[in-house]
Structures are given as C-alpha cells and as structure tokens.
Amino acid sequence: LWLAIDEQGRLNIEDFDEPRTGQRLPSFNYQISDAACYVQTPAVTQTFVIDRLTCHLDPETGRLRLFSKAQVDRPQVPSGIGRFVFAAEVMVPRLRREVKLDGQINLEWTDLTLSDLPVPLATRLPVEQVDGLSTGRLKLNTRPDLDIDFDFFLALKGIQIVRPGMPHPVQVPDAELICNGHWDPISDELHMNAFEYLTPGVHLHRRKDETGPAMVIDRGSETPFRIQLAGRVRDWLALRREFPEIDVFARRLNTTLSGQADFSFQFEQHRSRDHLRITVDAGESHWLIPNHEGDILDAPAGLPKIVYLEVIHNQAATETLESALVLNIGQCSLSADS
Predict the structure, then answer these.
(1) What residues contact 110, with CB distance under 8 A and at least 6 apart?
(2) d(Cα 280, Cα 309) in Å, to the nearest integer?
(3) Cα 160 vs. chain centroid, distance in angstroms?
(4) Which has fewest Cβ within 10 Å: 8, 163, 189, 285?
(5) Which uninterrupted H or E stretch holds 238?
(6) Cβ neighbours of residue 283 under 8 Å, at least 6 residues apart?
C-alpha cells in the first residue's frame, strides 16, 4: 500500500478508486492483513508493517469500529520492537443523522521513537530524536457536545534529542508522565484532574491538600491559567542534571545540595497580574556553602529548613507588585519583602 502526502498535508488515495468508473470502492467493511504501508512526504519516507487493520461502518446504527495493529519497520532494531495498537468504537452522525457523537478511542504503543510517529505529526515537531524509546497509552472518551475525557500515560527511556541551533544532543531524563482530565474544544477549557511526573531526580503530582484539578486552562475566565502541584526532590544531583537552570543557580552560589526535600507550587494567571507561591521543606537535605576562610553555611540533614517565596507580578507594567521571601533554618529566621 503506497500513500503520498503533499506539502499541504493532503493524502493521495487514488489507488482506492475504481479505475473503470472513477468511483471509490465500497467502504462499509475493510480488512487488511500482513501488509506493508509506505508513506511518502516531501521531507521523509516511512514504512509500517500492518499486521491487521479492520474497519466496519454500520449505516443502520451509525457505529464505526476500527482496529489496527502495526509494527514499524526499523532494520536497526530487533524484530518485535516498535509496535502500536489502535482501537475505536464511535457513534458517527455522518453515518446516521439521528445519532450523536459518542464513543471511545484507545491508542497504545511500545518502544517507539519520534521518527515512528505518524509522518504529518513527526515532521512538525521542533526536535529530532537521535536515540531512545517511548511507551505510552492514550484513551479518549468523546461526548455528544464534542468535549473529551482523556487518560494519558508516557514512559521515556534513553531519549536524546537535537533542537534547531543546538550543536550537540541533549539527554532527556528517563521519566513517566501520567495525567487525566477533561477538554472542551468549544469553550477552549482544559481541566487536568490528575497529574504525576516521575524522574530519578523529582516526583511531581497534584497537591493532595488542595481541592480542584492540578491544572486549569480557561481562556474565557478571569483566571485563564492556574496550576497547583506538590512534589519531592528524590536526588539533588539528578535534579541538577535534569534541569540545567537549577544547576546554574547552585553553581553561582557555590552551593552543595544533597539528600531529599518536599515542595509545593501554586501559580495563578489573572487578567492583570500573576501570583506565584513556592514552599520548600528541606529538612532531609544537607546544604553546604563553603568559603576559603570557612563554611558560610553548613546545614546538615535533620536540621529543619523551610523556604517560602511569594511573588505578585503586574503584567501590564511588567513589574513586581509584591514579593516576600522567608528562610527558616533551625531556630534562625530571615525574611525580606517589597
């Protein structure tokens, strides 16, 4: 099976047309087995081995059933690696006007690279993967009013990417991402009810002491964006490798950090201002700031250490309206505000 996608993203499927009449083949039932699919675009060519593809359209009920199981043809990796499964059962108003859009869509993949993504998507990503694999799952439940419930899982392993303008590959930390929520495309509103991100350096999740979703995007409200998360630094050295900004900050202060720490993070974007609150409980961490004449700070693990930062920023004037910083180490307390 040969498919071609032009510069505008249109799919050329003339091979499905009936050559004598110019009409397309009946499309109520299709089944393809053990087929090689070659997808060609102006930028890249991709090959899939379709183990099985079944499509059934039922005009009587308006139901669409689709199942596909495929393997990406990559000669450089062992056979069996790079597979994905797609299954959908949806009520389609185009098949029967009386029914409303409703159904479920499931996509699962194992050991895929960025280059294994569907060609139209892969060619639009601003990065190029040079190594590593991903495994994931996406489940969508469609509703009659076009809103969608989603459940997503992604695991990354050994990923290295190259961005435009970067001379060397960047190592992406091995990670797991889990989230679920609700998206309303009509009102452009997204509620992420659950969120979890796990790497060797950090574990990030929705705050359990707060009600409401982990993240809300509602462009029509007075608070277009808000997020509330909590987490745990599992390893400071790993965290510095994963987030270079933290490493740069620690180097500027000549600070050595070890151990673990808990933190919470809240951010609200209002129409005229932004509000940020961060709390870090580093009682299980060791903080060391050395000096050639002696240590400026040596706060061992077990000594209570709390950092609190709050900032209110004026968007229109691009200035800070209010800020507060509180640092508690043992029985000592230092605060500053403006």
Answers:
(1) 81, 82, 83, 84, 135
(2) 9
(3) 16
(4) 8
(5) helix 236-242
(6) 261, 301, 302, 303, 304, 305, 306
Identify the pLDDT of residue 322: 85
Residue 136 has pLDDT above 70, yes or no: yes
Strand ordering across the sheet containing 256-259: 256-259, 285-289, 297-299
* Bridge pairing between strands 273-281 and 305-314: antiparallel
Give yes or no for a contact between 45 and 51, defined as CB atoms under 8 angstroms apart: no
CA distance 270 to 225: 7
DSSP string, 143-212: -TTS-EEEEEEEEEEEEEEE-TT-SS-EEPPPEEEEEEEEEETTTTEEEEEEEEEE-SSEEEEE-TTS-S
Instruction: Determine the average pLDDT of the residues in 238-259.
Output: 89
HSE value, Cβ hemisphere, 13 Å, CA-based, for 23? 4
The gap between the terminal CA atoms of the chain, to the nearest Å, is 67
Provide the token pair at 24: 């397309």
pLDDT of residue 295: 73
Report, as an integer, the average pLDDT of 145-156. Answer: 91
Contact between 181 and 191 (Cβ < 8 Å): yes
Q: Enter the pTM of the model.
A: 0.81
- Tell me what pLDDT residue 38 has: 79
Comparing 185 with 13, which gets the higher pLDDT? 185
Neighbours of 131 (CB within 10 A): 12
